[in-house]
Design a protein that fits this description.
By secondary structure, the protein is an all-beta fold. It is built from no helices and 13 strands. Strand 4 and strand 5 form a beta hairpin.
């Protein structure tokens, strides 16, 4: 558990402990199946630096379709499971636990769970500086 304080725009804010907020997205970005998003921080708590910080779960056979990041970047950190990451140039790269998949501003990507268990990852969308 985290205990402490941090400064936000010159005012003191106490640390907060809360439950994760789960959202189910069907055929996310034109992908297949359901994707479960467990938001770690809502956008309004990212202090203007980004729009997504979440644990993402893709059940077997599901995917997030190819999409472009205009004005932001997104790394994925794979926690468990196996899949295929499709990079901006269309190359398909097998990924598994411990892999980090990054995409630059203005480029596109997709990810698909090709394994038999859930593919779980952390996703962070940060705005271009």
């Amino acid at each position: 558990m985290f205990h402490g304080r941090f400064l936000e725009k010159r005012r003191e804010v106490k640390a907060v402990v809360r439950k994760e907020n789960r959202i189910v997205r069907h055929e996310m970005r034109g992908g297949k199946g359901d994707v479960y998003m467990y938001h770690i921080l809502p956008q309004e708590e990212m202090m203007g630096h980004g729009r997504l910080f979440a644990r993402i779960v893709l059940p077997a056979g599901s995917s997030i379709g190819r999409h472009t990041h205009e004005g932001d970047t997104e790394p994925y950190y794979i926690l468990r499971g196996n899949g295929i990451f499709t990079d901006a140039d269309g190359s398909r790269v097998p990924v598994g636990p411990g892999d980090i998949c990054t995409i630059a501003c203005g480029e596109s990507h997709a990810i698909e769970n090709t394994g038999e268990e859930d593919l779980e990852m952390i996703a962070l969308v940060l705005f271009e500086a």
